[in-house]
Amino acid sequence: MPKVLITRRWPSAVEAELQRRYELTVRDSSLSAAEWHSALNEYDAICPCVIDKITADMLTVLNPRTKIIANFGVGYNHIDLVAAAARGISVTNTPDVLTHATADLAMTLMFMLARRAGEGERQLRSHQWHGWYPTHLMGTQVTGATLGIIGMGRIGMAMAQKAHDGFGMKILYHNRKPVNESMVYAMKAEYCSDMDNLLQRSDFVAVHCPGGKNNRHMINAAALAQMQPHAFLINTARGDVVDESALVTALQQGQIAGAGLDVYENEPEVSQALLAMQNVVLLPHLGSATTATREAMGMRVVSNLDAFFSGQQLPDRVV
């Protein structure tokens, strides 16, 4: 049986499936560079996740036994793909299965921000709520507001549809090019080739673009300055897409009304300034965290491993 290493605990149903097919080793912590070198010589497959930073230095093993890195997650900017390819290592991911879970969480952040739900719960739990009164925690109405989507891929599209169909929101989107799908036309979503145009007109801005060097700090001080003072920023994509220092400054200076974040630039570290703000909703990277979604992600990895070890085409090959 091929030897397979997973770097974190996975849902029990998926681990059981892997144990039936492979000689499985389960860790619950990141591997050091030296441990990566050992693992590449010991295992036929390694299955990391988004918090495992796999640099070129970690892949500097001549003729590694490992020939596939099957990533648990759709994003793969934490893996040096060039270095993997140079060592003859295939890389796969888990697309499609986390679309609605992540879009649902982006909607959750939007509503929590708009209705000041985080502030309200903290107030109640600290025994600071003394009863209803007419101006208590007045928030922002979502229904009929304008939502700007940056990155109209599967997740962006899903959020746009939920927002439009469920809450009558006007949809703007910024992408490399217009999306030619019937759903976009049905929503009357407006393409903004200029991101500044979207930022200037949106009540809520949701980031759904990939991470990596091409999009690093896409939302920077200049971009935040284009947003309206009453607008909110939502990020469930990758932490490095937003310049966190610039975001803190924009929030402190009242350039924008608030932010909802599920990902962070230096994850798992979170800025102390953000932690101190009442107009910020902070979640611990829960985008795909439903039982059904995490199990589906794991089974997608299993499918890639099965295809690899049976000599078939990889369904979710990245390199």
Question: If you compute it from the alpha carbons, what radius of gyration comes out, rounded to the nearest whole angstrom?
Answer: 21 Å
Overall structural domain count: 2
Strand order in the largest sheet: 8-7-6-9-10-11-12
Percentage beta strand: 5-15%
Got a strand count? Answer: 12
Largest sheet: 7 strands, parallel
Task: Spell out the helices and strands N to C.
Answer: EHEHEEHEHHEHEHEHEHEHEHEH
- Parts with pLDDT < 50 across at least 5 consecutive residues: none
CATH architecture of the largest domain: 3-Layer(aba) Sandwich
Number of helices: 12
What integer is the average pLDDT? 97
Query: Which percent bin holds the helix content?
Result: 25-40%
- Structural class comes to alpha/beta
Description:
This protein is of the alpha/beta class. It has two domains: 3-97 and 291-309, Rossmann fold, CATH 3.40.50.720; 99-282, NAD(P)-binding Rossmann-like Domain (Rossmann fold, 3-Layer(aba) Sandwich), CATH 3.40.50.720. 36% of the residues lie in helices and 14% in strands. The protein has helices at residues 12-21, 33-42, 81-86, 99-114, 117-125, 154-167, 182-187, 195-201, 221-226, 244-252, 272-275, 291-309; strands spanning 3-6, 23-26, 45-47, 68-70, 90-92, 146-150, 170-174, 190-191, 204-207, 232-235, 258-261, 280-282. Helix 1 (12-21) links the parallel strand 1 and strand 2 (23-26). Helix 1 runs parallel beside helix 12 (291-309). The two termini are 24 Å apart. The mean pLDDT is 97.
List keywords for this structure.
12 strands; seven-stranded parallel beta sheet; Rossmann fold; single chain; about 325 residues; alpha/beta
